[in-house]
Amino acid sequence: MLLTVDLVILTLREGRLHVLVVERGEAPFRGMPALPGGFLNHDREEILDAAHRELNEETALASSWVHLEQLAVYGESNRDPRGRVVSVAHLAIAPGLPDPVAGTDATDASWIPAEAVLSGEVELAFDHRRIATDGIEHARTKLEFSSLATAFCAEEFTIAELQQVYEAVWGTALDTRNFYRKVQAAKGFIIPVGTDRRTTGGRPARLYRAGPKTVLFPPLIQPAPSATEENPNGEEE
């Protein structure tokens, strides 16, 4: 039995949620897009250390300022044609990540819109679509009850930029006034930094940074999809 780590790396690019994929440089699935990842170097390498290493080796992204957490373990006997391979998947999030540079086992690396993975428009090797979907859904849920949204933001950000994170990850527009009220009600979620950012043609926007609280109370619950979103043709089921 072999052990690998796989990474679901998320960031916002042009206001949309993106997932990092690499083009596999060797068999199996040579030439197919896949999540970054690989085998442990040796039996003494810690799993989290391996995740940080793969983040750097396959994408040339520095991991020191990336939110990284274990997502889930995937161990179905037929998930890898090379034999019994168990994957410990991790979720990585950071703001404004640059264009990646492929390394080691990858021939290319690129950002693709999350919806392209969720819809199956982009086919991933192994069971990586399932892993990516789980990572995205985990991020969506965690935004409701934790301060994870601030991991998508720069060190200082506006409430409008924080709202863009929720809208991009949840895939839905939010009412600005209602969002502002809920964010302010979650004590310790964000705190003002005492300076403003000049905006074009308007008042300076107040800047905030992540607060001390990691659990939101009250939580910011994801709005339920409207009937039109669930059935865009307007037909009764």
TrEMBL record:
Gene3D superfamilies: Nucleoside Triphosphate Pyrophosphohydrolase, Winged helix-like DNA-binding domain superfamily/Winged helix DNA-binding domain. Keywords: Hydrolase. Coiled coil: none annotated. Residues 2-137 form the Nudix hydrolase domain. It comes from the Bacteria. Signal peptide: none annotated. The keyword Signal does not apply. GO terms for molecular function: hydrolase activity. PROSITE patterns: NUDIX. PANTHER family: ADP-RIBOSE PYROPHOSPHATASE (PTHR43736), SLR1690 PROTEIN (PTHR43736:SF4). This is NUDIX hydrolase.
